[in-house]
Design a protein that fits this description.
globular, alpha+beta, Jelly Rolls, seven-stranded mixed β-sheet, 2 domains
């Protein structure tokens, strides 16, 4: 006489079947995710090559990625990440227009933080290498009495407090943008934030640890390590009525490395010192992304003691 399966046996078989199904679905899902990530990596390699060719021809970096079309990039689909469901220009929001002759190959100029549920970021470096890094968390709150939320790469927040995993704390009086926080090629945290075009703001930074930290304004890119400093940005007009952006950096502790974004002049600002950079700006601001490299007109730089 045949005996059927017991309830326990049926439960075990059902559990095994569900586990195998979940495993298969997970493998398929990860395979698709990996394929889209590799598609983004290949896109970025094409963009990196196009920028390199542009620099050879023009001795400067493009102001926007669309400047590469159609001579340096023939297919506009290269500017679209397979993970991006919103825009056909996926990378423009995360493009950092650095000076042509930047000396540090470990600095990034392009990222895409959309991969593996926002846990991985594809990065293009000044070495012309492309790598995939692990995204680190940033916490944001409007004030000391507000709830903390997870800040997202590419978003702009209405001032307040940013806290990074390395212990760095940033206080901003006005709008502040997040590029990303991630593990770079040096195997240490790399944090990048920005003050958008058209924004007048004061930002205080207390940097901790040996991580990389950069803050971008329309006039400068300031990089620090183990430093406490304040940065003020003014989107204004000078006495002659010419539209300018003025960035002032005062250092309380440590050293801040400042590179103005037009001619690439480089200054080290020591403890107790202040630097003021006035750069020509565009007439109308574009506020939803990293500030553009300024028009090619020699900026004014002043450095003085507090």
């Amino acid at each position: 006489m045949k005996r059927g399966f017991s309830l326990l046996e049926l439960l075990i078989l059902t559990f095994i079947g569900i586990s195998i199904l979940i495993l298969i679905v997970g493998i398929i899902s990860n395979s698709r995710e990996f394929a889209k990530t590799m598609g983004c990596v290949n896109n970025m390699k094409n963009i990196v090559q196009a920028i390199e060719n542009y620099q050879v021809d023009w001795k400067e970096t493009p102001v926007t990625l669309t400047s590469l079309l159609p001579i340096y990039i023939e297919n506009p689909k290269i500017l679209h990440c397979p993970k991006d469901k919103e825009s056909l220009e996926s990378y423009s929001k995360f493009y950092i227009g650095r000076f042509f002759a930047e000396e540090d190959a470990n600095k990034v100029f392009l990222i895409c933080p959309r991969h593996f549920g926002g846990k991985r970021v594809v990065c293009g470096y000044l070495s012309y290498a492309v790598d995939v890094g692990k995204v680190k968390q940033i916490k944001y709150k409007k004030s000391d009495w507000s709830y903390e939320i997870n800040a997202k790469p590419g978003e702009i927040y209405e001032g307040g407090i940013l806290k990074f995993e390395d212990g760095t704390v940033v206080n901003s009086s006005n709008e502040i943008g997040i590029v990303c926080s991630f593990i770079g090629t040096e195997e240490k945290i790399y944090n990048i934030i920005f003050i958008p075009e058209g924004v007048n703001s004061t930002v205080s930074v207390e940097h901790q640890g040996n991580s990389r930290f950069e803050i971008i304004t329309p006039a400068v890119i300031a990089g620090v390590e183990g430093t406490k400093f304040n940065i003020t940005n003014q989107w204004t007009k000078n006495d002659d009525g010419i539209p300018v952006d003025i960035t002032t950096i005062s250092v309380e502790e440590g050293i801040v490395t400042v590179k103005e974004r037009n001619q690439g002049r480089y200054e080290k600002v020591n403890e107790g010192e202040e630097i003021i950079v006035e750069s020509r700006r565009y007439e109308n601001p574009v506020k939803n992304k990293i500030p553009r490299k300024p028009p090619k007109i020699k900026p004014n730089i002043m450095k003085k003691k507090k």
